[in-house]
Amino acid sequence: MKPTYLFKRVFAFGIDFIILALTVKILFPYISYKNSSGESFIKTEIGLLIYYLFFIFQDVFMNKTIGKHIFKLQMTFDNPMEINGYKKYFRIIIRRLFDLLELVCPFIYLIPIVLTKKNQKLGDLIAKIAVTQKPNN
């Protein structure tokens, strides 16, 4: 694995996370609650829903996130001829289920990428998806 690939993956996620944070900031007045002290907050369930919808929406409709697009990365499926209809969406959802664990413990994100042949994170391994660099045309 080239170090540039790892940096691209990490920075692509960083860009995606910044865009997500800006989205939440814009939506905050509409999705926040005030506690008895007058402090505003977002319920955990709503925050997680926004997080997962943000990433799943991009993966399903664009087949990549904005960060991956900027760094010329793409999602590829093992056995793409067998992936059609709901199977594609199911794999994308399975892949994203591990995001929270990878956010809480970044080593769970980085170690599999460094150690696996196709540089896959934990969710990628389980969902049989790989993130690859787009070939230069």
Automatic annotation (TrEMBL):
Domain RDD: 6-128
Keyword annotations: Membrane, Transmembrane, Transmembrane helix
Record's keyword annotation contains Transmembrane helix: yes
Record field: transmembrane: 12-33, 45-62, 97-115
Coiled coil segments of this chain: none
Superkingdom of the source species: Bacteria
Membrane topology value: Multi-pass membrane protein
An annotated GO cellular component: membrane
Localization annotation: Membrane
Name the UniProt record assigns to this protein: RDD domain-containing protein
